[in-house]
Amino acid sequence: MLELRAVTVGYDRRAPVVRDAHLTVAPGEAVGLLGPSGCGKSTLARVAALLHRPDAGEVVLDGTPVRGFRHRAPRAQRTAIGVVFQQPRLAADPRLRLADLIAEPLRATGRRASAADRVRELADTVGLTPDLLGRRPHEVSDGQLQRACLARALSLEPRWLVCDEMTAMLDASTTAALVRVVEDYRASTGAGLLSVGHDRTLLNRWCDRTVPWEAVAAG
Amino acid sequence: MTAKDASTSTSTAVTEPGAGDASGVPAPDASVPRTAGGGEAGTAPSVPTDAATDVPTNAATEASTDAATEASTDAATDAPTDAATNAPTDAPVEEKAVSAAPADCARATEEPARAGDPVRRGAASTVGATRTGPTAEAAAGAGPNRPAPVLSVRGLSVRFLLPGGRRVDAVSDASFDVAPGECLALIGESGCGKSVLASALLGLLPANSRTAGHAHLDDLDLLTADEPTLARTVRGRRVGLVPQSPAAHLTPVRTIRSHIEETVARLTGVRGRAARRKAAEQASLRAEFPRDHLDRHPHELSGGLAQRAATALALIGDAPLLLADEPTTGLDRDLVDRTVDELRRHVDDGHALLMITHDLAAAERIADRVAVMYAGRIVELTDAGAFFGSPGPRHPYSRGLLEALPERSFAPVPGLPPELGSLPEGCAFAPRCDRATDTCGALPVLENTVACHHPVPAPAAGPHATRTPEDTRA
Question: What residues of B are in contact with residue A145 (Cβ under 8 Å)?
Fold first, then answer.
């Protein structure tokens, strides 16, 4: 289970962005979190991805309360969650070739030796052709870069995926392609998914259940 | 600027602190005659004399004038704006945001039009002008009872020449018209050349670009017009740009009121502080920008309000043609609908709108006609009603794009779009197309509404005309 319990969070303790949020994702379940721009859903997604420490409340990952966030999160918890952000341009180091971008988590966790094979495999999964792997982010389109970011998120075979508006910048075909990749991955691994977005039609089509923001957080 | 201020000048670039100058970029040398359209340069009015007193003409102001008024998208203006706006807002959201630099680098190359080359227009030389056949002519536009188009594009091609002799065919042989009171939506995947086309129409291509064909705005060919003409009579005045990310086009250190007042001063005859203030408030009202937000800075606005501020700026010059480049990217559905409805209102007021988007729902909501672009070519150009409703699109790519929507079959078009630097000889979609045959090795021309050797047959309006008619191959 990925559980958010009474999470209050923001960037200023006096003015939290999200108050008293409760959300549970069961193993293998796909939950869509639906909310308008600026409601705080991305901030909550960051908490769920252990990237932002809540001011109050707790995150419980597979029964273990999370004690540290960001770099303080224990590696076992950190690597159990894969994240894909809305804007691939801002989520990709412009200096890295796509192959290195995808391999970064592998190298960071001591799997350097097997990285090359794994990258090829992942690239194939997300539909990147080998010639694209040698390019840097500025040489590929948004859609291609987001494919690489998704491959990076899948590289450590996370049990949980957090997709924060993963497809907001993409055209219909690329959206459908990336959602299919996520769903294929979940079907083969049983991973749970928290997908945050504002497109009701998309989330209803994609997820097992869609929860509106009002049902998750207070005020 | 008023007629009174306008005086004929033959060496305008010398006296005018022009757009290029402003952003630390050498102004185009007016003493060197340009290609066709140079006639315009001779009669181009000089800068109004009072601009120098009303508006401090230092680099910072000029740069902001560009961004706001003339909707310039050059890298020099983008860089500081992005750095200042994106960094604080986006940094907390994106984990790996190294700095604002990645976004900028990325943009620079993704849209070569904004690459760092200082000279705004590449010598508008002609490269292998592919003449448009009569069929394309017919397909491009004007039906029998359509009003005369505001913008008439014929055989527009844009190439980028890269180091090492490489060549990128960003736009190939595009032809279309946009009439007053009409919205043409140009749709396609990211990287298919849509934004390059917009840059070409505004004369904002970098120096390594070569254009061919024509883009007539009434009697002026935008492709061959020189920079002074474009800067002083076209951008903002005859073509209004609603930019892709308004936050990046507004100057972060100035209020919305200041943006609008400056634009009013530059583009209209309104003189005097009080009159300008009033005109600015009226301008904001036109775009439904709330008056009590006028004194805010861009970072204090939501995405929707920033979009309205940008729209207000685009409307001030009362340009007959509006160009909206992905105006809804990143907005949520309600805001998309609102933005699009507002744009539609301006179309109904008689503006012609060319809207570039990959958001099919937004296109369906606003467009009268739809042009689908694939790998730099317009592959289908048809009425929006027929496209989104019955009988549906006829090009297999358009069909695939629509079918990828979550409310339809949610199935992606297989494969990836081709590289614009190495396009196949024939139909660029053939490798991804399930209808492709050997015939597709030859380039299909746009006939009637579609450029395809094997279009989905136009159904003989049968009783089963559904929203998404089944493929009739079965």
Answer: 106
Query: Which letter does DSSP use for residue B28 in this model?
Result: P
Kindly report, residue by residue over A140-188, the tens digit of the pLDDT.
888 899 999 999 999 999 999 999 999 988 889 999 999 999 999 999 9
The alpha-carbon gap from A199 to the nearest alpha carbon of chain B, in Å, equals 6
In-domain check, residue A34: yes
CATH number of the domain at A22, please.
3.40.50.300
Q: Tokens 């705004």 belong to which residue? A: B120
Q: Pairing mode, if any, of strands B352-357 and B183-187?
A: parallel
Arithmetic mean of pLDDT, A49-68: 95
B40 Cβ contact list (under 8 Å, min separation 6): B220, B225, B226, B229, B233
The neighbour count for residue A217, using CB atoms within 10 Å, is: 24
User: B307-346, pLDDT tens digit by residue?
Assistant: 889 989 998 998 999 999 988 877 778 888 888 998 999 9
Cα-based distances in Å from A138 to A204, A216, B276: 33, 38, 42
Burial B136-170 (b: 16+ CB within 10 A, else e): beebbbeeeeeeebbbbbbbbbbbbeeeeeebbbb
> Does A184 reach chain B within 8 Å, measured CB to CB?
no
Torsion A184-A185-A191-A193 (CA) sign: negative
The domains of chain B, with CATH numbers, are 12-318 (3.40.50.300)
Best to test chain A binding among B111, B168, B190 (most A CBs inside 10 Å): B190
Element (H, E) at A153: helix A142-154
For residue A139, what pLDDT is reported? 85
Instruction: Please give the tally of structural domains in chain A.
Output: 1
For residue A6, give its domain range.
Answer: 1-80+161-167+192-219
Quick one: pLDDT at residue B448? 84
Amino acid code (one letter) for A207: C
Question: How many A×B Cβ pairs under 8 Å?
Answer: 137
Question: Which of A89, A195, A198, A200 is most worth mutating to test chain B (most B CB atoms within 10 A of its CB)?
Answer: A89
Cα(B250)–Cα(B82) distance, rounded to whole angstroms?
10
Q: What is the pLDDT of residue B402?
A: 93
Evaluate whether residue A95 is within a structural domain: no
Question: Is position A42 within any domain?
Answer: yes
DSSP calls for B98-141: --SHHHHHHHHHHSGGGSS-S-SS----B-S--PPPHHHHHHHS
The whole-angstrom separation of Cα A85 and Cα A34 is 16
Average pLDDT per consecutive 10 residues, chain B (474 residues; last block may be shorter): 39 35 37 36 36 37 40 38 37 36 38 38 41 45 68 95 89 95 92 87 91 94 93 92 82 94 91 93 88 90 83 91 88 84 92 94 95 95 94 94 93 88 90 93 90 83 43 39
